[in-house]
Specification:
The complex is a heterodimer of chains A (167) and B (646). Chain A is of the alpha+beta class and 167 residues long. Helices cover 40% and strands 11% of the residues of chain A. Chain A is built from seven helices and four strands. In chain A, strand 3 and strand 4 form a beta hairpin. Chain B is an alpha/beta fold and 646 residues long. Chain B folds into five domains: 153 residues, Glutaredoxin; 202 residues, 3-Layer(aba) Sandwich (Rossmann fold); 87 residues, Ubiquitin-like (UB roll) (Roll); 88 residues, NADH-ubiquinone oxidoreductase 51kDa subunit, iron-sulphur binding domain (de novo design (two linked rop proteins), Up-down Bundle), CATH 1.20.1440; 56 residues, Alpha-Beta Plaits (2-Layer Sandwich), CATH 3.30.70. Chain B is 43% helix and 13% strand. Chain B is built from 27 helices and 17 strands. In chain B, the strands form five sheets. Chain B has a five-stranded mixed beta sheet. A four-stranded mixed beta sheet of chain B has the order 2-1-3-4, sandwiched between helices. A four-stranded parallel beta sheet of chain B has the order 7-6-5-8, sandwiched between helices. At the A-B interface, helix 2, helix 4, helix 5 and helix 6 of A face helix 2, strand 7, strand 9, strand 13 and helix 21 of B.
């Protein structure tokens, strides 16, 4: 991503101004942070400070809110996001073993990014596609009824070369 | 000046006219289920293929459209082909190639492709007739001798839909969720116009009380009473909030309802707002549900344009509008005071009640928070009457309940059954029993706040009080079926891991207690359990349940208590024998091959993801235990019972 992480994009600045013009402006802190995260993939520190400044909310409070919710991340993510659904249906159908196998294949723990920056491994609370359990999502592509044996095949089109070779 | 009902009638006339031009005039109509999970199963590709075929053939007499969740998740994508004046045909599990076959043989040549139809008897009557009945639940049930027949007509597959009664899901999978016209054609917004024109807020509250509607988010608090509390407060401003932050893992009812029929939820919110005196509504929805958000946004815009939302709704001097706020992934925000804090832009932590939100909620104003499904019931009650609604269900639990049926069950899907239906009926009749011929072990309701019930309790009727007495809860509607390969200790650990992770940390019993419980459970599943651990768990559970600040903590021990109550022997086996019979706890599971039984077919070697099985053709195979990751695929692949687990 080429966006400058030291200045808020103009449209988000305007969004903040619109929010503050109406009643309960400060209540839009979460939507504003969501926009930043959607744009950059995470919340860069300087931008959180700028949000605090523009919304006239103490930085400590902005950080407090951002760290409370799972949606927000504070480190850049890899090029591709590999998400294992850990909802109950997926769990019952073996998602734990899928996650373990992915950790092993990618050589990272949950929430981490491979050294080459290609993959970030994450787990989701529940994606609500329980009929297809267990489910693995790579970026936006959802794979259902996954077995541990399918994983290398699923990752291959994204540049996965084999265990231990990505980082 | 015309009243709300007259305005609505005019809007509906226009809508039906437009629909006729666009759809009903067509010789053949094709509808494709397109909820999130259907799209994941390839619905969009099927749609694109049909579209290309229609364009290619210049088949101007064929109309193509999308509908919401068809409920039959294991047969997705589901496609319905409707010819004028004949019965609709439902196809399951289509892909582009099969879609082409259906198009060629059925749509063009009039020969239905029997092999691809959903199993079970097909619907009778033509679709216009069926759709017109969908908006009128009372008529539908009164007109048929039993529910089974009534629903066969609309939904086709008798095995799956036979025991169901779809009230909140009445339009799901039937109408196009992105079309206000279609919603209007099935009596959409008639309930809202009716209350505005003919009922006082107090009458609406009394009607909902009389119907016996209770909160579907899990708590089961009488909805009318909640509205009454807020209505009785004097304030310059009041708020109504729809909680669509569906957080229970294994639950997708609210997502499907919004994706399949967003206007119903908006209409419910509108009526609730009118009853309690709110002029502003909020829709608090999970950010993880992009399709539901998009459809809701579209529906809100359409409703505003039609004059149903905004200033002077339905030409009256009332104002009501709805703003959408996205959840940011915090399970505790299902708790109403935490949700309020989240909308206010703060950390979503609960606070002690009272004051209840109905007295002091959002920005200190009286606020009511209702769940999606609760609100979706409201138009039905207004249109079909409180007495009729109250005739469905049990003495204390009225109406129906939607469940997201998933796990090790044959027919996974979105189901809606009358309250009082037994778990057995849901799992075996609607769900078709256990997958792959395995044995039933437990059914879990209520998500992380609920419990696991064993086979001996399958005849428990589904209602708030009976499920609670049995050690589980109704919950928001996740229903996960577990087979013999599920380890109940591991399940308890799974839920505790979830609640521990989601505990907001404000009160000590929940923050520290769930952590200690999780430690003990983890130790047991790793083979380091000690005598007395179960008693320790029960002691902690009791304290946490009694002393936590909010529902999350108070209910957190439920999965542990219920698994200990019903599956104590599994705990003992893990602790004393260091054994997991289900083979789910990796640390306690070893796989080896029985040399006597192995025929050397190589099936296990081929599926092994880490290539730790060696052996040539017709030779006895061997597992290298040091490299084995205990995934169990060889165990499942072997057809000679030669892979041993222990």
């Amino acid at each position: 991503m080429t966006d400058d992480i030291h200045a808020l994009p103009q449209d988000i600045v305007e969004y903040i101004d619109r929010c503050l013009a109406g009643p309960h402006g400060e209540s839009y802190l979460i939507p504003v942070l969501q926009q930043v995260q959607n744009r950059f993939g995470y919340l860069p520190r300087p931008l959180m400070d700028e949000v605090a400044h523009r919304m006239r909310i103490p930085t400590a409070k902005v950080t407090g809110v951002a760290t409370f919710y799972h949606f927000f991340s504070f480190t850049p993510r890899g090029k591709h996001r590999v998400t294992v659904c850990m909802g109950t249906a997926c769990f019952v159908r073996g998602a734990g073993k899928i996650l373990d196998r992915l950790k092993d294949l990618l050589g990272v723990a949950e929430g981490e990014t491979t050294a080459d920056g290609l993959f970030t491994l994450e787990s989701a609370r529940c994606l609500g596609t329980c009929a297809l359990a267990p489910v693995v999502v790579v970026d936006d592509a959802l794979h259902g009824n996954v077995t541990t044996g399918d994983l290398e095949k699923i990752l291959k089109p994204y540049g996965f070369k084999g265990k231990g070779e990505t980082g | 000046m015309s009243g709300p009902l007259e305005r609505l009638a005019a809007a509906r006339r226009e809508a039906v006219f437009r629909l006729f031009e666009r759809k009903f005039k067509a010789r053949v109509r094709i509808t494709i289920g397109s909820a999130t999970c259907e799209n994941a199963a390839g619905a969009e590709k099927v749609y694109a293929r049909f579209k290309a075929l229609i364009d290619e053939r210049g088949a101007g007499d064929v109309a193509l459209g999308r509908v919401g969740c068809t409920g039959k998740c294991d047969m997705e994508p589901v496609v319905t082909v409707i010819e004028r004046n004949t019965r609709p045909f439902k196809y399951g599990a289509l892909n582009p190639e099969r879609a082409e076959q259906v198009f060629r043989e059925h749509v063009l040549e009039g020969r239905p492709v029997e092999a691809l139809l959903l199993p079970g008897p097909q619907p009778e009557g033509d679709m216009e007739d069926l759709i017109s009945r969908c908006g009128d639940a009372a008529e539908r049930v009164r007109g048929a001798a039993d529910l089974e027949r009534a629903f066969r007509d609309v939904f086709g597959d008798v095995h799956f839909f036979g025991k169901q009664l779809r009230l909140t899901l009445r339009n799901c999978g039937v109408i196009d969720p992105e079309s206000l016209d279609e919603y209007l054609a099935v009596r959409g917004y008639e309930a809202a116009a009716t209350v505005l024109e003919r009922m006082t807020p107090q009458e609406v509250i009394e009607t909902v009380k009389l119907a016996g509607l209770r909160g579907r988010g899990g708590g089961g608090f009488p909805t009318g009473v909640k509205w009454g509390f807020a209505a009785g407060e004097a304030a310059d401003e009041k708020f109504i909030v729809c909680n669509a932050d569906e957080g229970d893992p294994g639950a997708f009812m609210d997502r499907s309802t919004i994706e399949g029929d967003p206007h119903t939820v908006i209409e419910g919110l509108m009526i609730a707002g009118y009853a309690m005196g709110a002029t502003q509504g909020f829709m608090y929805i999970r950010a993880e549900y992009p399709l539901a958000i998009a459809r809701l946004e579209r529906a809100l815009e359409d409703a505003r344009r039609a004059g149903f939302l905004g200033e002077r709704i339905f030409g009256t001097d009332r104002r009501f509008d709805i703003e959408m706020r996205l959840g940011a992934g915090a399970f505790v925000c299902g708790e109403e005071t935490a949700l309020i804090h989240s909308i206010e832009g703060r950390r979503g932590m609960p606070r002690p009640r009272p004051p209840y939100p109905s007295a002091s909620g959002l920005w200190g104003r009286p606020t009511v928070i209702n769940n999606v499904e609760t609100l979706a019931n409201v138009p039905v009650i207004i249109l079909d009457g409180a007495e009729w609604f109250g005739s469905i269900g049990t003495a204390k639990s009225k109406g129906t309940k939607v469940f997201a049926l998933a796990g090790d069950v044959q027919n996974t899907g979105l189901v809606e059954v009358p309250m009082g239906t037994t778990l057995r009926d849901v799992v075996y009749d609607v769900g078709g029993g256990i997958k792959d011929g395995k044995a039933f072990k437990a059914v879990q309701t209520g998500g992380p706040a609920g419990g696991c019930l064993p086979a001996s309790m399958l005849d428990t009727p589904v209602d708030y009080d009976t499920l609670a007495a049995a050690g589980s809860i109704m919950g928001s509607g996740g229903m996960i079926v577990m087979d013999e390969d599920t380890c109940m200790v591991n399940v308890a650990r799974f839920f505790l891991e979830f609640t521990q992770n989601e505990s907001c940390g404000k009160c000590t019993p929940c923050r520290e207690g769930t952590k200690r419980m999780l430690e003990i459970l983890t130790r047991i599943t790793e083979g380091a359990g000690e005598e007395g651990d179960v008693e320790k768990l029960l002691r902690l559970a009791d304290t946490i349940r009694k002393t936590s600040l909010c529902g999350l903590g108070q209910a957190a021990p439920n999965p542990v208590i219920s698994t200990i109550t019903h599956f104590r022997s599994e705990y003992d086996e893990h602790i004393r024998e260091k054994r997991c019979a289900a083979g789910a706890c990796a640390a306690l599971t070893r796989y080896r091959i029985d040399p006597e039984a192995c025929v050397g077919c190589g099936a296990c070697r081929r599926v092994c993801p880490v290539n730790c099985i060696t052996g040539g053709p017709k030779q006895v195979h061997v597992i290298d235990a040091s490299r084995c990751i205990r995934c169990g695929q060889c165990f499942d692949a072997c057809r000679f019972d030669a892979v041993l687990r222990g």
